[in-house]
Design brief:
Layout lengths: L20 E5 L2 H17 L5 E5 L1 H6 L2 E5 L8 H25 L3 E5 L2 H13 L11 E5 L11 H8 L2 E4 L14 E4 L13 E3 L5 E4 L4 H21 L5 E5 L2 H14 L6 E5 L5 E3 L1 E5 L2 H8 L4 E5 L3 H11 L8 H6 L6 E3 L5 H13 L2 H18 L6 H6 L5
Parallel strand pairs: 1-2, 1-4, 2-3, 4-5, 5-6, 6-7, 8-12, 9-10, 9-13, 10-11, 13-14, 14-15
Helix pairs in contact: 3-4, 4-5, 6-7, 6-11
Length: 395
Amino acid sequence: MSAFPTIPASFDRPRAGEVDVLVVAGEHSGDQHAAKVVAELLQARPGLRIAAFGGPQLRAAGAQLLMDMTTFSAVGIVEILSAYPFYRRLFARMVSWTTRWKPKVVVLVDYPGLNLRLANELRKAGLSRAGFGETAVIQYVSPQLWAWKPKRRFTMARDLDSVGTIFPFEPAVYADTKLDARFVGHPFAESDHQHGLKYDPDGPVLLLPGSRPKPVRKIFPALVEAFALFRKDHPKRRALVLHTGGEVHAELYRLLAEYGDQAKGIDLRPVSEGPAVGCAALVSSGTMSLTVALAGIPGAVVYRANPLTWIVGRRLIAGRVDNLGIANILLKRQAWPEYLQGACEPAPLAARLRECVETPGPRAQAVADAGELLRMLSAQSGSTPAEWVASFLPK
């Protein structure tokens, strides 16, 4: 079975024959953030015609889903090379659809490897305002230029009309360009910022290896083995793995079956089933690591990649950031200890879990750090993301 779906010969036409807003969100986190923006847009302006290359949450929010982009994605050099033919075909279809139906606003959500290339093509096609067309092309969630490829800000200024940042320090990154960069607040800096996670001293250990199959394949075995070691001292404890379904669920299920008795006490559950609690967490260095931090759940950040991807990646970020977890970057310290690549081993991870459940210090520190993070992310002025998008629509 192919890792990628079949691309239809042509995507569906807009339901109303026209489209006001096109959203492009290639990952689960982007689908989640974009869905909230779409729901708020439609609440304020019910007649808007919104289409999306996104996922199920965008569909549920009211967008016409042209193709589910969240069932596949590739990260890292080796992974991207293997997926290149598929992405090339998909990209061509996306450009063709957008230039044919000419939405008034294109909202590119995160996923810069795809979205910034799309912005460039829309400029060259003369569709976007940057290419002297009529469509506003804007990027919601800035690439992490403070860590990776800072010179991209100049091509972004050439190809985009605006960027909405989710961290308050990011607009300054674009100060030497003409690009309109606005801090519109972080999606988690709200009353529901825990996004279904809550601390419970009697709850399970959360094992959160990520939302993409290949990183899960690299990371999850270390988490299974770490929990097995931890459970020798805490035999009544269980672990909960939250997943996004589809291929990720299949990969998790396969790995648990492979580990047999060593995986006892580990349960799988879709994130869509509602709130979850945890006493500690081992979480990959993605969006979920910030979610765990804001919920005040102690634990550790973990990451493993293909060795070539890791070596090249570390060289690229050398001297720019000292940590990989977003919470640690914001706090400028390892509030959540990081176990990366060769350090992502069962024994130290099990020791960290024991520390979190046997001593009060990690939880107390996690609560204090969560409060500090929330103040950072909610200290916003100006428009919300939905208001920012709406400012590019005709009145």
